[in-house]
Amino acid sequence: MVLASSELEDRQVGVVRADNHDIDKHIAGYADLIKDAAQADQIEHEMGVRQALRIHKKAVFWSMALSSALIMEGYDVVLIASFYGHPAFLKKFGVPGPEGKNIIPAAWQSGLGNGSSAGGIIGLLINGWASERFGPRKTFLIAMVLMIAAIFVPVFAQSLPVLTFGEVLCGIPWGIFQTLTTAYASEVCPIALRHYLTA
Questions:
Q1: pLDDT tens for residues 105-131?
Q2: What domains can you pick out in the chain, each with its CATH number?
Q3: Which of 11, 92, 120, 170 lies in disulfide reach of 175, CB 3.0 to 4.6 Å?
């Protein structure tokens, strides 16, 4: 018996090719399972917003609860820039300027302003791997614990380098929250609500 090259390659790597009819012979009810999945998919596509909200309350609640992690992230990222002119901040972190007043040098302003973004990029990369490996729930909980630990660094910082390092550390869980919450909403919510909850 002569095998075609594709069949020979399939046998060498242990791949079995079959159509739905062949699978139905080995798995009882496979055709019914496919039919039920297609019907459920059709129902979800035809579902309106009100009906989806009524049926999927828990999915909406958990999607919004996870997304609430981003509320403070948006505030915290821009908060540091408002401190540059604050007298107490300048007294603690400033360096003497040309006019004798304390200032935050431009290089440090740039580092403080962009530190959380740099950490966010690291968090975005970590989330892709971690949520696939451990699942979104564990990844979210670990990021929350990391956020609690990371926030201590900027709160107790005594110098600009430590404050900048704290901003980078805080950015890592913020990056995880940015991608994890959107991906979670797109996976658990019905199509009628997906665009609202991912926004």
A1: 999 999 998 999 999 999 999 998 999
A2: 56-198 (1.20.1250.20)
A3: 120
